[in-house]
Every structure is written in C-alpha cells, then in structure tokens.
Description:
Elements: H1 22-28, H2 36-41, E1 47-50, H3 54-65, E2 72-74, E3 84-85, E4 88-89, H4 93-100, E5 104-107, H5 114-126, E6 128-130, H6 144-159, H7 164-179, H8 182-186, H9 193-200, E7 203-210, H10 216-224, E8 226-234, H11 238-248, E9 254-257, E10 260-261, E11 266-270, E12 280-281, E13 286-291, H12 293-296, E14 302-305, H13 311-316, H14 319-325, E15 328-332, H15 339-350, E16 354-360, E17 369-375
Parallel strand pairs: 1-2, 1-5, 5-6, 7-8, 7-14, 8-9, 10-13, 14-15
Antiparallel strand pairs: 3-4, 11-12, 11-13, 15-17, 16-17
Helix pairs in contact: 6-15
Amino acid sequence: MVYHRGVKYLYNDAPALCDGDDLMMKTLFDFAYPNVWTAMAECDLPIVLYGMGNGADKVLDEMEKRHIKAAGVMASDDFCRYQAYRGFTVQKESDFAHQLGAFSVALCFGSSLPDVTAHIRAVAERHTLLVPNVPVVGDTIMDEAFIERYRDDIARAYGLLADDRSRRVFKGALDFYYTGRLEYLLAIDSDKDEVFRDILCLRDERCLDLGAYRGDTVDEFLRYTDGYEAILAVEPNPKNFKKLTEHLTHIENATALNAGIAEHQGVTFVTKGGGRMAALSAQSGTQVPVTTVDALGFHPTYLKVDIEGMEREMLSGARDTLRRDCPKLNLAAYHRTEDFFSLILRLHELQPDYRLYLRKHPYIPCWDLNIYACRIG
Length: 377
C-alpha cells in the first residue's frame, strides 16, 4: 500500500496558508492515506456496499469503471428485505459476516439522524469502512487527477479563510473527500450555535431563503435572529412549496415564492418527488419559472442558499446584490465535489469585502458543509 508522504496531518496544528508559501502547500496536500478509490482497488478484503439508491448507483458505476469488484450490498436490519438491487440480493451485515468472515464496507448513503450515524460509527468499529465520495450533483470524483488539476485553486481558497477553525474544517473536508476515512469527517463537526452567535449575529434582518423546502430553515432563522423586517422564502418544487406556504401562514411579514434561482431568468423543470433533493432539470418534470437574486429586488441583509448544485449559477445572478448589499451569507458548499473551494473563490471575486468562514455540521457523509460570510468590520 502506498502512503502519500506518510505524514498524518494534525488538525490542531493547522497553519494559515500564505501566498507563495511552498511549505504550507505541501502540508495542505499531505495525505496520511491513499485515495479512497486506490484503497478500494488494492483492498485485500471483499468490499460490501452499505446502502442503496442514487448514492449506491453512483458508487457502483464508478467501481465498474475502475474495475473494482463489489462482493454484495447490505442494508440495516430494519431495512433489509432481501430485495434485488443491481444484480445483488440485499442482505444483512450478519449474513455477510457468516458468508465472508472479514470484509470491508463502502458507505453509500447519507444521514444526519443521531441513531443512524451512531450505527454507521458502530459498523466502522467492526469493519474497515470507507466512504467513496460521489457528488450529489454531477459526476466529478476527487482522485489523484482531481488534486493535480485543482491544486492551485484549492490552495487559494484555503488562504482566503478568515480563521483557524475554518482552515481545520477545510483541511479535514479535503482529507475526507480524498481518503474516504470517516475519522476526518467526525473530527470537524460542530453545531450551528457558534456560527449564528459569533459570525452571523442576526438582528433586524431582511431574510432571503433560497431552497426554503417546507419552512425548516425559516424556523432556524427565527430561532437565531434578534428581530427581522421581512422574509422571502423561495422554493421551486410545487409539493414543497405548498407545504411551505401553509407553514408561513402564521409568520408575520413572510412571503413564499414558487421559483427556481439561477444566473438568468426563464423557465425550467423540477424533477419528480417532494424531497429536499428534488432538483432543477432542463429536460423533464414540472415546469416552474426561474429568476435571479438581482431580479427579485428584495435587498436582503441575510441570504441563505441551499439549492441542490445551483449555488454557483445563483452567485452569478446575484452580482449586484452582493456588491451593493453585501448580505450576511449562509451558503451550502457540498453538492458538487469542487464546491467547498470553487464557491469560496467565486464569492471573493464578486465581493472582496467578505470575511469567509467554513463550518461542517453533523452529517455523514460531508453534507451540511457551509460557507458563512459577513462584511469585514
């Protein structure tokens, strides 16, 4: 097994990266373990996938592309019905223990539920568990070629972060994406209280919530703000929008808008389903209007964005708002593999007066990784 420089990074010693600092560049890209796809290809144990659905489909597709053999698919005892999936009969962990003895586990689903994440950690104690990271949106995989291609961009984004905790989170996320090792992810978790108390400091805000789902993030805003002027909650999915409208009925000065958010105005389609992961599509689904942040004319002082991979396009359609209003920002940075660094670079380009922070909140895999921003001073 090849180890990249064989040096394990110590998070509590994470230094800031300065322009032209070759030592810091090397430290940022020191990985204690090989890339997760290399580790799976060289694994001496049978690899059993844990989970089904879209994530497992993407993992299996990538494994087939890289000629990595899967020994089977397992589900938690409560979900196992011995159903057929991608040519496998889904079985329980105990079934594979009886059949295979020792085996490795590739995690292929996500959750923030404490009982589910506790079970994942327990599985990791019994087996070698890797998390082959596949993006929520797109098909870009973080491997050796990805690191070489984006090395300078990753380093530049790291250097723009405002505090040591953000740099530790950035390094931990990079290590997790690259190696698939769960311990890196768990080491950077934190709750949201610190963000809202010490970074965003919400008071008397005009809140623009993009990807408002059914109103849960409006509730989050209300829980943390010290007063507000108005709320505009935008949700493209018609099923979610109906629930959102009902939820906002008894909230004063709160308005719901059924629309997608992108770089340009127009129309698009929303894929079927009422879940949070329902996404915009140019080809099929329910037709909805698309607008831009600038076209809304809302002038937010607090902007929350979680729009399933459309975050970069949203920023391009918010140029004037960002430059004129410089709203406090809560931006999802996990839908695409490159989001956690490319969105930092784009934000700095559009609004250089932002102080940029990165935080990861409890979720397996590296979802709920967010960029927070506020005006310098």
